[in-house]
Design brief:
- The radius of gyration is 24 Å and the shape is elongated.
- It has a two-stranded antiparallel ribbon.
- The chain contains seven helices and two strands.
- The protein has helices at residues 2-19, 45-58, 60-72, 74-96, 104-123, 127-175, 177-188, and strands spanning 29-30, 33-34.
- The chain has a domain at 40-166.
- Helices cover 76% and strands 2% of the residues.
Length: 197
Amino acid sequence: MVKKTLLVAVAILFAVSLYAQPPHGGKRWGPIGQGAVRPMRPLPPEVEKKLLNEVGKVSPYLVGKLKKLKEENPMLYRGILIKTEVGYRWWQRLKKDHEGKKFADELWKLSIKERELAVKYHDATSDKERSKIRKLLEKIDYNLFDLRQKARKITIKKLEEKLKQIKEDLKDREEHKEEIIKQHIDQITGQGRRWRW
């Protein structure tokens, strides 16, 4: 019984350590580059299918390459798919924003085209072909940079609004300190509740 409990505890600690940040606050190196903080697990099949479908609308070429890569190098495939899925979720959130929806689709399409050109660059057989692709990448990346900056400005604006609301809530709580404390005591003694402790 003690051995079984000990094994379960060790298994739990091991599982928790996979998700933990290093104690010094630095970033962990992982299979998808600096900053990887979770093990690379495959995406659920329905998410993978939906993601490949969305990528395929922009670049059937890239989907073909990804499917080939899945057979040849599953870990690299998984890493690329996870990074793409993060971009996909960002695109979906941006589409829901009033300001972001104006350029969200363009951002997604350019991101996929950038990945497609990167694959073509690595597949290129001549320096002339690579040079041509590099110029296209440069043009796309300038546009991507500008669009990502717009998206970041939207994020900053939302965070500032949220911070303003939190400050107002904090000020309101300070003004009602005595009432909050009395109601908290009533709550823990079973006499009622209204304010959140």
